[in-house]
Amino acid sequence: MTSEVAIAASISSDMRQAAKQAASSAGQLAGMDLRNQWESRAADQAQRILQSREQEMSALAQAAAATARLAEQATRSLLALQQTGKL
User: What are 63-78's pLDDT values in tens digits?
Assistant: First the structure.
């Protein structure tokens, strides 16, 4: 009878340890899932920011090209005025 109680106590202890290990593993898996979700969201946000910056850079390049064209026109106009003696 004593050995049966000892065996039952040992099995109970083993079951408690297994339950603790399972809970710990479940917690780790949940943490990994949250980390994966966070990393995915961070990657999505970084992609959106990159696309926004690319659009801004494209707009700046267009503005720079327009400024260069205006500068060329202004230079030609000033040269024409200078040649006609009006400047």
Answer: 999 999 999 999 999 9
Are the beta carbons of 87 and 81 closer than 8 angstroms?
yes
**Which amino acid appears at position 15 of this protein?**
M
Q: How far apart are the first and last CA of the chain?
A: 120
* 32-53 per-position pLDDT tens digit: 888 899 999 999 999 999 999 9
Three-state SS string across 24-53, please? HHHHHHHHHHHHHHHHHHHHHHHHHHHHHH
Task: Tokens for 76, please give them.
Answer: 């030609």
Give me the residue label for tokens 């809970």: 23
Q: Are 43 and 52 in contact (CB under 8 A)?
A: no
